[in-house]
Design a protein that fits this description.
- This protein is mainly alpha-helical.
- It has 4 helices and no strands.
Length: 86
């Protein structure tokens, strides 16, 4: 994981904004920096889109107690996979 990957995945997380309006109420959110690093720690370029999707939603669920349907988050996992392969 390099700084460029972290920044690119963080931008996807910001766009997704899994917390929605609640994000502004979390003081140390830092645009999902910690969650981005956690996701990238558990995946690599060999990871499937399904694995990325699962890890991504698990990290958010564990951090914030918010749960998502994997069908609704797959598009973000696909974009993360593309970043890992570039």
């Amino acid at each position: 994981m390099d700084d460029e990957q972290i920044e690119n995945v963080k931008q996807i997380m910001i766009e997704w904004n899994p917390l929605g309006d609640q994000a502004s109420k979390i003081k140390d959110l830092d645009n999902y920096q910690i969650e981005t690093e956690d996701i990238l720690f558990h995946i690599d370029k060999k990871s499937s889109i399904d694995r990325i999707n699962k890890i991504m939603t698990e990290v958010i669920s564990e951090a914030f107690g918010v749960y998502y349907d994997l069908n609704n988050t797959r598009k973000y996992a696909e974009r993360i996979k593309k970043i890992l392969n570039d």
